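Ticket #4471: complex job returned nothing on first submit. Input attached below:
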Amino acid sequence: MTDQPSPPRGRPRDPKSHAAVLDAAFTVLEREGYAATTIERIAAQAGVAKQTIYRWWKGKAPLFMEVLARKANQSVQLPDTGSFQGDLTALLTGTFAAVSTTLRPLMRALAVELLQDEEFAGAMRDVFVQRRRANVRALVQQAIGRSELPVDTDVELVCDLVFGIMWYRLMFDHAPLDKCAARQIACAATAAAVQNNV
Amino acid sequence: MTDQPSPPRGRPRDPKSHAAVLDAAFTVLEREGYAATTIERIAAQAGVAKQTIYRWWKGKAPLFMEVLARKANQSVQLPDTGSFQGDLTALLTGTFAAVSTTLRPLMRALAVELLQDEEFAGAMRDVFVQRRRANVRALVQQAIGRSELPVDTDVELVCDLVFGIMWYRLMFDHAPLDKCAARQIACAATAAAVQNNV
Amino acid sequence: MTDQPSPPRGRPRDPKSHAAVLDAAFTVLEREGYAATTIERIAAQAGVAKQTIYRWWKGKAPLFMEVLARKANQSVQLPDTGSFQGDLTALLTGTFAAVSTTLRPLMRALAVELLQDEEFAGAMRDVFVQRRRANVRALVQQAIGRSELPVDTDVELVCDLVFGIMWYRLMFDHAPLDKCAARQIACAATAAAVQNNV
Amino acid sequence: MTDQPSPPRGRPRDPKSHAAVLDAAFTVLEREGYAATTIERIAAQAGVAKQTIYRWWKGKAPLFMEVLARKANQSVQLPDTGSFQGDLTALLTGTFAAVSTTLRPLMRALAVELLQDEEFAGAMRDVFVQRRRANVRALVQQAIGRSELPVDTDVELVCDLVFGIMWYRLMFDHAPLDKCAARQIACAATAAAVQNNV
DNA sequence: TTCTAAGCGAGACGGTACGTCCAGTCTTCGT
DNA sequence: ACGAAGACTGGACGTACCGTCTCGCTTAGAA
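Support reply: We reran it on our side without changes. The output follows.
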């Protein structure tokens, strides 16, 4: 029994408007900051009616979630340098490069939303956070396979360690997220993973 | 020559209003969530005119900063268990207890603000963040004194590791900040600190 | 080439809101007096958002100007009793009847505004004042046509005399604007018009 | 037995403040218009506390009433040119000179108040309006004494005619209040007074 | 072709909160 | 007791967005 999602009747969604809204959202966010990023401004910037935004997104949060998806969809191919620390350094270098430039305003914006809306926090967690954590988990499994890390390594703690620092620096801006940071954090994570006699 | 800050003229600030606003801010935040916490509602709850709030605070951000100061001013006395890991576990246990209960809504609220306002982010960093980091720094110094940790331990990284995870869990709520978490994080931090051959 | 005032786009103005605001303005004015007649109260009384008032009127002054236009739009048909004094008495009797009852609060309200705003005073002068003066001017021309008044009668002075007294009594309330007043003023105006050897 | 109005105790009223307020009121009124003439601005301009104004006056209305009293207190000495029309022309010339220059903003300001407050309207009527009308009444009596006008001349109507036009022109500014106007109005008033066969 | 359904730009609508201003009152210190 | 300073409650201001609701006009597949 196929689940027919009803035959598409009426005028189909205009892909130009769709794209224009996503672009406008990002543009306004970058130019004016999130506090000034209202639906009205996005609509104006996109040359689109407000209703067209509300028709397709419930609010700013899901809209920016899609913007982030657009910008961050390039599937990361996992590195394999031979050592866990090397792999992690490579992964984080790439991640941090994106996160500290293009994605930075987006992630901060989404953080604002998820801090105020439990439901949206759940959605974000299930989509973006898990995706990134999965990469690290994979590296850990790889290292366990190589017997580089103990089988009972606390994977979640390693993930928390890595992404905790990342978000912390994204929020407070007190230290950079550059290549050097990637190396240091990978080192710390490795040490923590190895010595995981909880 | 003492710096006389001008003799106090006019009617002095009413301490009752002052306290009522701080209490009301916290009450409304807890009861209705930060999204619904408007200046108007706080004023109504406090039985105070809006102007009285605007006279003393520039907006919600500085107001809640003072609320947090009130709630978090109890000076933590540093533990001395004999080992760095023990000390850190003790410190974090106390910190997490506060942060995951009373302070939780406050810290999330302030995060919302600092993510949208660079200037306020700076203020928060200089006051609260530094205060908490100072505690950890002190423990690290203690441990270095005991030759438990190398003299060139990367103190800042240790701090980032600890508070990164704390904020990360505060934001996404994907794991608790309980006694067990304190122990695990202390363990990871110790491992990272010892093995700090950057 | 007709002057196309642009095709109407977007949702058209809601005539119900329009009427509700005008009615509410009048109601509140009558019930609470002009000092208490705020835009907010009018909006509340009309069951309308404040913005809907500000969208269509610049402030209380133009709003009440339209209210007055509504109430006073019945075109007066000029009397023709055979004598100037009779005509004027008839005209003033009708005018005073309206002005001392329904229109009274409106005219006082508009006076408040025009006394504080030169620009609005100009608008009022060009619309309402001129309309009323035109009636008297027409009567004077009629009388000149009948050789009842000299050709060089100072029409403007006659208008000033008549409406001067009307406004003066509207302001200070020291004497009525009834049928008797109409007769007396018509008599005085006639005497002044005849004897106009400046 | 002297009527001691209670022995003056405490610090007596500061005449400098008193004068400063009156001056400031007039200054602000002239410089910024009545709409912008708030008690706060007057107090600031006078270098006086708001309370000092509220202690001595109930509001703007009575305050400006006193300002007007200051400016208009020069007792007019009634002219006696031999004819009613001449006398009236002389009186009005002087009155109009003051009313169309210095007193203009004050009278418009007071008109705003009395239009919104019946009680204050009464006060104004009993003081200023009556004072001015008394002058005209005296001229009429003089003329009756000279048998220039009938004994049953409608004095009140003559007053209304004269001051009606004056206020009307003050409000709408459609015609000047100059010497010429005085002459014309005196002429019209005389004609109306003579022909007063009501 | 005509009909029907939905998308779309435009913009009015009822609301809510903003941050400011002023009204009047109250409280403190100094004269 | 008066006066200057200025904090206080209260309430209206005019503006900005929210999210919803008509409008007239496409733009498609179905009849």
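Residues 7-12, 14, 38-41, 50-51, 54, 59 of chain A lie near DNA strand F (CB under 10 Å from a C1'). Closing as resolved unless it happens again.
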